[in-house]
Design goal:
Elements: H1 6-13, H2 30-42, H3 52-81, H4 94-103, H5 107-116, H6 125-135, H7 138-146
Length: 147
């Protein structure tokens, strides 16, 4: 159908007989069949007897779900966040000692040392504010002020 003008022509060519039909004498005994089915479903003895496993299935399903979440989240997260500092290792070389010293320094101080060297400078108010802002959260600062 390439255009809307062809649609009415195609509809006139279509067969008007419906392909689906109701079986013969279907509605003759329909009320009796419906009533017997309703009686069968609403009878008190129609329910099946529950076993112990029927009560335990939901609890076992929840336990399995929690166990799978635990295995899929906790162990990989623990492997990623589990870090052993170099000080806890048994390295005694000069490189290990330097790494131990650098490991205890925060990022801001470390990059400042790299850029400026070891010259001693007098620390003034804006420098202290920028250091505190870079290394402490607002909650830590608020709790420290409240002490």
């Amino acid at each position: 159908m390439r255009s809307f003008e062809e649609i009415p022509h195609k509809l006139r060519e279509a067969d008007r007989n419906l392909p689906f039909r109701v079986p013969g004498h279907y509605f003759d005994d329909f009320p009796a069949r419906l009533q017997s089915r309703l009686d069968q479903e609403t009878s008190p003895g129609a329910g099946k007897r529950l076993r112990m496993i029927d009560y335990l299935k939901p609890a076992l399903g929840l336990a399995a779900a929690f166990a799978s979440v635990f295995l899929l989240v906790y162990f990989p997260a623990r492997l990623v966040t589990h870090s052993v500092t170099m000080a806890q290792r048994s390295g005694t070389s000069d490189e290990d000692k330097i790494i131990n010293l650098v490991e205890q320094v925060d990022d801001h101080t470390f990059f400042t040392l790299l850029e400026n060297g070891t010259t001693e400078e007098k620390i003034d108010g804006p420098d202290i504010e920028s250091y505190i802002a870079a290394n402490y959260s607002d909650l830590d600062i608020f709790l420290e002020i409240q002490k």
